[in-house]
Amino acid sequence: MGKIARRLSLEALVNEFVPPHKTVALGGLHFHNTPMALVRELIRQQVAIACLVPPLDGSINADQLIGTGLVKQVLVAYLGAEIYGLAPRFRAAVEGGSLTVRDFEEAGYTLALQAGASGLPFAALPTDFLPSDQQLPTVGSVNSQDYRALNDPFTGEQTFVVRAITPDVALVHCQFVDTLGNCGYLGAPFLDADIARAAKVCLVQAEQAVEVLPAACRSVLPGYVVDAYCVLPGGAHPASSHGRYSYDDQHIADYIAAAASADDFAHYQTNIIGDSEDAYRVAVNIDERLAMLARTAS
Amino acid sequence: MNYSPSELMACVFARALRDGDTMVMGTNAHIPSAAWRLARDSGKPHVRALIGATGTLDPTHESVPASGGDQAFLPGTAVLGLARGVHDQLRGFADVIFLGGLQVDAQGRINLAVIGDYEQPRMRGPGSIGLSLVATIPRAFLFFEKHDPRVFVETVDFISGDVLGADSELLIVTPLGVLGAAAGERTVKLMSVHPGVSFDEIQAATGFPLDPALAVTTVPPSVTELARLRTQS
């Protein structure tokens, strides 16, 4: 059945399309072009997540969801804060034993998302790609839920395959959405094209609604992938929105420092994430921040 | 002439790059990017750079952005995209990958996943990410801001990538010296000690034995190299 993407409020997107105890995927990469407003709304509506699928490089997006205790299990190729160090709430949850990790690496994660996006059951890695050892743990030995060795049916050589990632819901951020639900990216789409297609339902937060996508868009997510969207300028803050604004270095540094303690994280959740996106925008003085961080397409 | 540890590290990498190499870099690209430009300015004009996060080929940034996913990494000869970049690395088009890690061991294995027991880690790290790609990229260049015995260990706690096990070449540059192994070798050895650093100092900072007979001094940056590094935009 064809899709007609519906424009809804941020609150309604989460309320109508993200039931509890599902597998939820996030777009973007690190603190770039990632759907932070949707992440904050999941936290406000306290949506329990059975399995979180962060971007290939997960960041504050996954760290905040994990910090609230909503996430039971997480897939990890990389989950950290890049130039800011480690992801503190993720680290605390794993070391405290309250979060299960399914460890991946870059090639397997990318191929698993692409398999999901293409309707393939799994993808094969190059022969002898994964390290193996009798004594020490490796991705192949600790994550048999996603990685399995099998014999290539053509050559008989042993190789690893990685199971398709097929989230229930994908959340992505883009710069433009047109009246048919086509989504335009001014900058890098990272793996959003695959994340969005791999999921059963795709929700989008766009910076701006337009009649026709501008020619400056480097990439387009077709409307036939998109179930519903909201329009929210600045919705990626404190992450960047390529072509619109840079990441908020001060905010992210402050968050990483606060997230080192459960109490300070709780304070961030209450006072910054707040009980509505409007409250967040007031708390961070969004107009002033976005003006300071403004970037144009490159 | 005075120089910084970063300038020396960039020089060591630039000298190790060969004309025609395609090198992959990502986060903390300051040293790899400086090495890339220095190599191109030093008679190796066909060294190419691929940015992992965006798949940008030969980026034309004026100053190196801190974050690998910054939009400042987009302008370049081409933007292949993240997935195509990964496929090209699997296919074997990349010659060199720049990486870091939480641990490196005497057998050239690298770890970015956990410190301690896997099930109950003492420290949960970010994850194995591109360290696995050493299997399909013949030379791994590792750089560290600190040379620390907690990083250079006898045996890693988790194998994210096995450089020497994949018969790849390993080159490790730190503020104290250069370690590494040629393709086909199975043990990491000392290659050189930086000027002003003693063998005892680098041995004390390394958790596996090094051979003092190999403690030659790293060639310091030449006046020409420093001039080229400092006029890079």
User: Based on CA inertia axes, which overall geometry of chain B fits?
Assistant: globular
- Count the helices of chain A. How many? 11
Mean pLDDT of chain A: 97
Approximate helicity band of chain A: 25-40%
Distance between the termini of chain B: 21 Å
Number of strands of chain A: 15
Gyration radius of chain B, to the nearest Å?
Answer: 17 Å
Helix content class of chain B: 10-25%
Model description:
The complex is a heterodimer of chains A (298) and B (233). Chain A is an alpha/beta fold. Chain A has 2 domains: 6-103 and 167-293, Glutaconate Coenzyme A-transferase; 122-130 and 139-163, no CATH class. Chain A is 32% helix and 22% strand. Chain A has helices at 10-17, 36-44, 60-67, 88-95, 106-118, 139-142, 192-198, 249-258, 262-273, 277-283, 286-293, and strands at residues 6-7, 22-26, 49-53, 57-58, 73-76, 78-79, 100-103, 122-124, 147-151, 158-163, 169-177, 183-185, 201-209, 219-221, 228-231. In chain A, the strands form 4 sheets. In chain A, strands 1, 2, 3, 11, 12, 13, 14 and 15 form an 8-stranded mixed beta sheet that branches. In chain A, strand 11 (169-177) and strand 12 (183-185) form a beta hairpin. The longest helix of chain A is centred in the middle third of the chain and has 13 residues, at 106-118. The model of chain A has no long low-confidence stretch (mean pLDDT 97). Chain B is an alpha/beta fold and 233 residues long. Chain B has a single domain (5-231), classed as Glutaconate Coenzyme A-transferase, CATH 3.40.1080.10. Chain B contains 5 helices and 15 strands. Chain B has helices spanning 5-16, 30-41, 82-91, 199-204, 223-231, and strands at 22-25, 48-51, 56-59, 76-79, 96-99, 103-105, 109-111, 114-116, 121-124, 139-143, 152-153, 161-162, 169-173, 177-181, 189-193. In chain B, strands 4-3-2-1-5-10-13-14-15 form a 9-stranded mixed beta sheet, covered by helices on one side. The mean pLDDT of chain B is 96. At the A-B interface, strand 6, helix 4 and helix 5 of A face helix 3, strand 9 and strand 12 of B.
